[in-house]
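Internal tracking record. Fields below are filled automatically when a chain is submitted to the structure queue. Please do not edit lines marked as system-generated. If the sequence contains nonstandard residues, flag them in the REMARKS field before resubmitting.
Queue: standard
Priority: normal
Entity type: single polypeptide chain
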Amino acid sequence: NTRVELAWTTAKEINNDYFEIERSTDGETYHTISSKIKGAGTSSIENQYVYTDNSLLNTYNSVLYYRLKQVDFDGKNNYSSVIAVNTETNNVFKVSPSPVSDKLRLTFDDVNEEDTITIELFNILGNLVMRSSYLPREDGSVHHLDVSSLAAGVYTVNAGSQWAKQKIVKY
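SYSTEM-GENERATED OUTPUT FOLLOWS
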């Protein structure tokens, strides 16, 4: 993998001047890797943003840490939760449907039947909102997850460090 796509959504914005993306190789020391990403100022509608980190060739770490810095017009700032990205991930699982209302279907290719896979869902702020264990020897290569209790929004589905993360939309 030579790039990481970072996406986030704001439900509303108040005096939001801009965002910056910060990256770390150790989870402690962060450096700004983006130019200023213009915010919506004051907005009561949902806004979606995307930034692609194309500079992975300059890193020698398999795990990179990212956080979002949000800066107001008056210079005050806030940081998002940190996300870790495994850049050596080769395994992909499929999620369907997206958008989803109640049952999410996760299909794993080349899964080891002896493994236990922990599936985690994170909201747009990076907060863990659901955790479930999946036993391939009992469930096969398909796992169904009841997401009906989640609020509408964008979520990240993480199935452990050996699997690529997936995004879903819940309505």
